[in-house]
């Protein structure tokens, strides 16, 4: 951690003292031409003060000045600069904690390692050659701009290399290929990556000298290739490559800023943490933002406003939403009249949400994207009397869509805290909790044998020990670049409309360790959006856990095989009209024993489907959803559809889709505080082609569409039909009384079938916007002949206390 601070402090030291002057672009040009000189020095080196850049004494003097400023910058930190360290240190800390695990996922094949190493070397040599060539060609042709580009590139490389080797000597971290772990002070030279530092140094100078989109794409794309391949060649851990890249980009940016001749073309150096427009206003497209957790009160509130017609930009089939996106939705609601209306149900919802997102709305208006917040502290006690259901992949679940938390007969306990922070393009979110739950006994041998026969495995005990541990839920770091936000860490997603749970991906299982890339706000696709309207999209790739593999029906691997398989998912949603939203998505499981993670196998999951398991790259699911506000009743009634198909391009036109139909009344006529929602679900039926239960299962991934034994999609299971309904009376925007009913009927040809019926009541009450109480009681009766010869009953009660500190750093 000391090394991390020493590395990051100089990078972030200039946050609040930097110039925000922007250099306007020349019309029709890919580069920017300055019309005025940059502003005065502000703590690094005097910007643009050496119009006679050349080799010799000024160059050597610059190197000394650059190094002096880098090493003394930490002593010049002010309070605001120190705050910016929090997300950066948090994100890098996540990388440090994940280094060993991530490095073990790299295929250990000589051809793969050599190819990655060669790519990184050639890419670095190409960038160095480009820098040197620019200087020589500029010298021969008297092109001062090219000559300066080559000179500053060389200066940046030398500085970043010097700092990299100092840290290498201090940290002595072994390389992943040495198989000595990911620790420090063991005689290695891995931290940080000098290849990444060199590549990003040159790319940063080139991108600042020639700030056109094509130049930046090529320069940063080549540098990113170096960063990635230093990891995939097992020459460096991910944190080595990341810190090296940051050092390189920083030196390139700062050296350009200090020594660029302001009479030559080039871009503005901008602000390290906030890009600004030419008028000095901050650019929200450079402001990262954490995501609203899926179990937050914010979603039903925003959904009600959208259903009432006050918000058009809410994409209901693609969640979670970022806090900045929620703030934009509120601005739209204000423009629709809620900012001035009084005494209506919608106005009460709007005011509660406006209080929640007051900081984010100020950032949209120009405030700095900088802060640390403690969101909530909560404690929940759950007691189950009677025999519960806990296996949605084969029978049913008494508790669903609860982040895969363990439960069984007796008392379970959780106590947790959530917090988030932002600093310009960086964001950080952590939610951790202590969990305690009773042990779960294994099924009897006859049940295990029946399950093994259905799943084509061999019987193995499935009991789980008592849980008493601290567990991270959603915990990640994020980086915002333009309209795209990158996040890495433990995360969840909700790919579909409705309340009971999407078919494609939900929070029924624990959060996955994943890389997520998503559009933070709606965007338009040339030509296509003229027909389909603006879109939002998301991509993720993560790793499952608790999977089981069986070969030749004799050899058992798992659960928790090594390596565990991966999953990638994509979803895009369009809004052609104010009343219509539709989306398409896929997920695919791939990798694992006998099928290593390679980019070739990853690409094959999109198009390859083989009957031979040896040739099949993975398990693929495709989904389609639609939300439609009924004409004439558009502010009163919303209809939605969610569907899924296995190993087909789309549920549209398929003869074997699984589907959910739903309707939502945000307010019942003459009773504006009463909300009604109802959904009917059915798993695919194709007895002529597949036996019941084929959905959410696979011949290669014998644990099916699960992680840690929990379904990743809908609770209805692999062969179920049923429904769920809720009637909610809103006492206020955050307090409510809700009655619910849930029914499930499993096909008798799937593990002898069964039925489940749940009746529930929930009370949510918020006191003074700081303290909340939630009480829940559910009565369930079920009968699955394979589990029990007679009908079983259980009662679940839960009480949760939540405290929202509303604490924000100043």
Keywords, please?
single chain, 810 residues, alpha+beta, 18-stranded antiparallel barrel, two-stranded antiparallel sheet, 15 helices, 26% strand, disordered N terminus
Low-confidence blocks of residues: 1-51
Largest sheet composition: 18 strands, antiparallel, barrel
Shape: globular
- Strand content is 25-35%
Cα-atom radius of gyration: 28 Å
Distance between the termini: 25 Å
Q: Mean of residue pLDDT? A: 83
Number of helices: 15
User: How many E strands?
Assistant: 23
Oligomeric assembly: single chain
How much helix is in the residues?
Answer: 25-40%
- Structural class, from secondary structure content? alpha+beta
Brief summary of the model shown:
This protein is of the alpha+beta class. Helices cover 29% and strands 26% of the residues.
How does this structure look, described?
There is one protein chain. By secondary structure, the protein is of the alpha+beta class. The protein is built from 15 helices and 23 strands. The chain has an 18-stranded antiparallel barrel. Strands 8-9 form a two-stranded antiparallel ribbon. Strands 16-17 form a two-stranded antiparallel sheet.
Summarize the topology.
Layout: H1 2-12, H2 57-72, H3 79-104, H4 110-141, H5 144-171, H6 194-209, H7 213-232, H8 238-259, H9 298-307, H10 323-338, H11 345-356, H12 358-364, E1 370-386, E2 410-423, E3 426-437, H13 445-455, E4 467-481, E5 484-491, E6 512-519, H14 528-532, E7 535-543, E8 549-551, E9 555-557, E10 566-574, E11 580-590, H15 599-604, E12 618-629, E13 638-646, E14 658-665, E15 674-682, E16 706-707, E17 710-711, E18 720-730, E19 736-746, E20 754-767, E21 771-783, E22 792-803, E23 807-808
Antiparallel strand pairs: 1-2, 1-22, 1-23, 2-3, 3-4, 4-5, 5-6, 6-7, 7-10, 8-9, 10-11, 11-12, 12-13, 13-14, 14-15, 15-18, 16-17, 18-19, 19-20, 20-21, 21-22
């Amino acid at each position: 951690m000391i090394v991390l601070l020493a590395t990051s402090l100089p990078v972030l030291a200039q946050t609040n003292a930097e110039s925000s002057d922007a250099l306007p672009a020349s019309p029709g040009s890919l580069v920017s031409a300055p019309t005025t000189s940059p502003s005065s020095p502000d703590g690094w080196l005097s910007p643009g003060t050496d119009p006679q850049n050349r080799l010799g004494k000024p160059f050597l003097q610059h190197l000394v000045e650059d190094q002096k400023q880098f090493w003394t910058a930490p002593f010049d930190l002010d309070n605001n600069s120190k705050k910016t360290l929090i997300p950066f240190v948090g994100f890098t800390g996540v990388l440090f904690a994940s280094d060993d695990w991530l490095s073990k996922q790299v295929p250990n094949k000589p051809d793969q390692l050599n190819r990655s190493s060669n790519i990184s070397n050639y890419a670095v040599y190409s960038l160095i050659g480009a820098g040197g060539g620019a200087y020589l060609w500029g010298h021969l042709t008297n092109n001062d701009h090219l000559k300066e580009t080559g000179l500053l590139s060389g200066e940046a490389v030398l500085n970043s290399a010097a700092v990299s080797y100092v840290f290498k000597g201090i940290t002595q971290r072994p390389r992943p290929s040495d198989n000595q772990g990911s620790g420090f002070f063991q005689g290695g030279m891995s931290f940080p990556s000098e290849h990444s530092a060199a590549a990003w140094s040159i790319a940063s100078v080139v991108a600042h000298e020639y700030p056109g989109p094509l130049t930046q794409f090529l320069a940063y794309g080549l540098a990113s290739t170096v960063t990635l391949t230093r990891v995939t060649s097992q020459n460096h851990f991910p944190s080595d490559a990341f810190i090296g890249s940051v050092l390189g980009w920083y030196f390139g940016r700062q050296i350009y800023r200090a020594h660029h001749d302001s009479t030559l073309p080039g871009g503005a150096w901008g602000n390290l943490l906030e890009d600004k427009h030419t008028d000095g206003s901050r650019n929200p497209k450079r402001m990262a933002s954490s995501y609203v957790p899926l179990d937050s009160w914010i979603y039903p509130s925003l959904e009600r406003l959208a259903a009432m017609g006050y918000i058009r930009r809410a994409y209901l089939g693609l969640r979670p939403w970022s806090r900045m996106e929620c703030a934009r939705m509120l601005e739209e609601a204000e423009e629709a009249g809620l900012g001035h209306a009084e005494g209506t149900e919608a106005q009460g919802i709007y005011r509660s949400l406006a209080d929640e997102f007051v900081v984010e709305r100020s950032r949209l208006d120009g405030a700095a994207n900088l802060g640390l917040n403690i969101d909530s502290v909560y404690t929940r006690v759950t007691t189950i009397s009677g025999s519960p259901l806990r296996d949605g992949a084969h029978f049913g679940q008494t508790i669903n869509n609860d982040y895969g938390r363990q439960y069984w007969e007796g008392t379970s306990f959780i106590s947790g805290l959530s917090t988030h922070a932002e600093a310009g393009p960086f964001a950080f979110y952590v939610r951790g909790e202590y969990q305690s739950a009773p042990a779960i006994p294994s099924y009897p041998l006859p049940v295990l044998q029946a399950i093994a026969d259905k799943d084509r495995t061999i019987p193995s005990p499935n009991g789980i020990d008592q849980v008493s541990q601290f567990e991270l839920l959603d915990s990640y770091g994020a980086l915002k670049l333009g309209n795209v936000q990158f996040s890495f860490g433990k995360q969840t997603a909700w790919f579909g409309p409705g309340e009971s749970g999407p078919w494609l991906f939900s929070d029924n299982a624990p959060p996955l360790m994943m890389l997520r890339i998503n559009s933070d706000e709606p965007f338009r696709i040339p030509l296509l959006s003229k027909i389909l309207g603006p879109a939002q999209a998301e991509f993720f790739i993560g790793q499952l856990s608790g999977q089981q593999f069986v070969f030749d029906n004799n050899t058992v691997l798992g659960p928790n095989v090594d390596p565990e398989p991966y999953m990638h998912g994509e979803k895009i949603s369009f809004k052609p009209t104010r009343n219509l939203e539709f989306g398409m998505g896929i997920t695919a499981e791939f990798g694992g024993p006998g099928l290593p993670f390679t980019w070739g196998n990853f690409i094959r999951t999109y198009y390859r489907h083989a009957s031979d398991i040896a040739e099949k790259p993975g398990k693929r699911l495709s989904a389609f959803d639609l939300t439609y506000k009924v004409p004439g009743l558009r502010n009163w009634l919303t209809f939605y559809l969610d569907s899924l198909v296995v190993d087909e391009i789309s549920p549209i036109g398929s003869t074997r889709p699984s589907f959910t139909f739903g309707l939502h009344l945000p307010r019942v006529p003459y009773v504006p505080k009463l909300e009604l929602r109802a959904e009917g679900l059915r798993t695919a039926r194709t007895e002529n082609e597949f036996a019941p239960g084929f959905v959410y299962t696979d011949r290669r991934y014998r644990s099916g569409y699960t992680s840690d034994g929990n379904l990743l999609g809908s609770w209805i299971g692999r062969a179920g039909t049923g429904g769920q309904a809720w009637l909610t009376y809103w006492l206020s925007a955050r307090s409510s009384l809700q009655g619910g009913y849930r029914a499930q009927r499993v096909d008798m040809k799937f593990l002898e079938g069964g039925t489940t019926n749940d009746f529930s009541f929930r009370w949510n009450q918020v006191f003074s916007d700081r303290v909340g109480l939630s009480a829940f009681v559910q009565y369930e009766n079920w009968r699955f002949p394979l589990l029990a010869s007679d009908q079983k009953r259980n009662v679940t009660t839960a009480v949760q206390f939540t405290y929202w500190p509303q604490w924000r750093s100043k």
